[in-house]
């Protein structure tokens, strides 16, 4: 095609594995293995002198379709899918890091990722330095001769702090290191880290790609040469995505751009409404126009802030818990990116394992509430928050 297709078209038409039955929807190849026509054929497939499928841990047509479609949305050459977002992060890190290497990571991390780094990656002899999400000079000072990778997620959870991807990519490449970005909070509907120099964009497909709270999945996208190396790791470690989940996630991807845009607009409206409520001390949302990082948000996130925002209510934990206990529409759960809006208390859930001092240092306070805005009618959500704040 001489015409370059819009991501909305790619999300629906980007790739497909077609059988001779002429099915219209992507077929679900729910099979663990594939047959060979002859013994010679089997030998050729295993020797990789012939292209084809052998076993679904290694490759599967439904999973390949999913990988190719998300890679197109991320503007990457290729993608490798995994069973969960955490498996994608593990694969992106451990394919390239060896004992004796050094990793620099933002301090503002999803809780399980922080646990993966400090509890597991570190015990394999990989040194880790944690630095500020936003202060590039801290990253510069942390560089060592053995630094192999820079890792972060942007915007951060739950406060929406934005990292400068172009500056960090330049720093990484000047030092022969890879920049790996967790793109979960924005999704490729809003942000494409590879466009700003990241080497790998990683995400949990469980969030915006599914968007309907059904299945777990993950994917890493980037240059083909890097993805092929990660694919070998995923195959050996058995981190592969199931074909059923890939098929479900493909349906999710088809509507992702529309959902995410609508959810982002609703999140902005709610953030601006919250700013006017007397019980609210502070609203954290990267999409607010007065955000000091608004230029970066325009550049990296197409001006959108994502579906997740946080706000601090006066009165600490008791007041935050009251709001959470009084909402009638929002689901009390820590997941996000779903069509169902959710509400949670970071201090005691997602960030519960951090010490109180570390939480305060990260600006996560007892009165902080995090919501993920779904696709319910936005004025109903505002009504729900209003009655919960009023508390009658
Ligand atoms: C949810 C999440 C993950 C982990 O994804 P799973 O699919 O739950 O394994 C990783 N990073 C971020 C930022 C997340 O929000």
UniProtKB/TrEMBL annotation:
EC supergroup of this enzyme: transferase
Reaction catalysed by this enzyme: O-succinyl-L-homoserine + hydrogen sulfide = L-homocysteine + succinate
Subunit organization: Homotetramer.
UniProt xrefs under NCBIfam families: O_suc_HS_sulf (TIGR01325), PRK08133.1 (NF006003)
Pfam name, any one: Cys_Met_Meta_PP
Superkingdom of the organism of origin: Bacteria
This protein's record includes keyword Acyltransferase: no
Cross-referenced PANTHER family: CYSTATHIONINE GAMMA-LYASE, TRANS-SULFURATION ENZYME FAMILY MEMBER
EC numbers for this chain: 2.5.1.-
Family matches, as Gene3D superfamilies: Aspartate Aminotransferase, domain 1, Type I PLP-dependent aspartate aminotransferase-like (Major domain)
InterPro entries in UniProt: Cys/Met-Metab_PyrdxlP-dep_enz (IPR000277), O-succ-hSer_sulfhydrylase (IPR006234), PyrdxlP-dep_Trfase (IPR015424), PyrdxlP-dep_Trfase_major (IPR015421), PyrdxlP-dep_Trfase_small (IPR015422)
Modified residues (N6-(pyridoxal phosphate)lysine): 207
The protein's name: O-succinylhomoserine sulfhydrylase
Organism placement in taxonomy: Bacteria, Pseudomonadati, Pseudomonadota, Betaproteobacteria, Neisseriales
GO BP terms, alphabetized: 'de novo' L-methionine biosynthetic process; homocysteine biosynthetic process; transsulfuration
Annotated GO CC locations: cytoplasm
Keywords linked to the UniProt accession: Amino-acid biosynthesis, Methionine biosynthesis, Pyridoxal phosphate, Transferase
Sequence similarity: Belongs to the trans-sulfuration enzymes family. MetZ subfamily.
Involved pathway(s): Amino-acid biosynthesis; L-methionine biosynthesis via de novo pathway; L-homocysteine from O-succinyl-L-homoserine: step 1/1
Function summary: Catalyzes the formation of L-homocysteine from O-succinyl-L-homoserine (OSHS) and hydrogen sulfide.
Keyword presence, Transferase: yes
Cofactor(s) needed: pyridoxal 5'-phosphate
Gene Ontology terms, MF aspect: carbon-sulfur lyase activity; pyridoxal phosphate binding; transferase activity, transferring alkyl or aryl (other than methyl) groups
């Amino acid at each position: 095609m001489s015409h370059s297709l819009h991501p909305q078209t790619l999300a629906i038409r980007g790739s497909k594995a077609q059988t001779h039955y002429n099915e219209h929807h992507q077929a679900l190849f729910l099979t663990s293995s594939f047959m060979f026509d002859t013994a010679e054929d089997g030998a050729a497939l295993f020797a990789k002198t012939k292209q084809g499928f052998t076993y679904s841990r290694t490759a599967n047509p439904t999973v390949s379709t999913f990988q190719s479609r998300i890679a197109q949305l991320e503007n990457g050459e290729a993608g490798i899918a995994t069973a969960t977002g955490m498996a994608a992060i593990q694969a992106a890190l451990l394919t390239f890091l060896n004992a004796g290497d050094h990793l620099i990571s933002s301090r503002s991390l999803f809780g399980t990722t922080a646990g993966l780094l400090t509890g597991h990656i570190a015990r394999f002899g990989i040194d880790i330095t944690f630095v500020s999400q936003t202060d590039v000079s801290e990253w510069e000072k942390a560089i060592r001769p053995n630094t192999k990778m820079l890792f972060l997620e942007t915007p951060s959870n739950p406060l929406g702090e934005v990292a400068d991807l172009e500056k960090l990519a330049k720093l990484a490449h000047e030092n022969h290191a890879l920049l790996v970005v967790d793109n979960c909070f924005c999704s490729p509907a809003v942000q494409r880290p590879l466009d700003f120099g990241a080497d790998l964009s990683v995400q949990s497909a469980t969030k915006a790609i599914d968007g309907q709270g059904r299945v777990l999945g993950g994917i890493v996208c980037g240059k083909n040469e890097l993805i092929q190396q990660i694919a070998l790791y995923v195959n050996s470690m058995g981190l592969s995505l199931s074909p059923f989940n890939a098929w479900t996630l493909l349906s999710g991807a088809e509507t992702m751009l529309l959902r995410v845009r609508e959810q982002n607009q609703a999140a902005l409206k709610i953030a601006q409404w919250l700013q006017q409520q007397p019980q609210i001390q502070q609203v954290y949302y990267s999409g607010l126009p007065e955000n000091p990082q608004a230029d970066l948000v325009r550049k990296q996130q197409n001006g959108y802030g994502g579906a997740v925002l946080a706000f601090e209510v006066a009165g600490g934990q008791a007041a935050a818990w009251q709001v959470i206990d009084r909402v009638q529409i929002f689901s009390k759960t820590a997941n996000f990116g779903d069509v169902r809006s959710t509400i949670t208390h970071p201090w005691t859930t997602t960030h519960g394992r951090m010490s109180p001092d570390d939480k305060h240092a990260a600006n996560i306070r007892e009165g902080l509430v995090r919501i993920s805005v779904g696709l319910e009618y936005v004025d109903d959500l505002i009504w729900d928050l209003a009655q919960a704040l009023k508390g009658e």
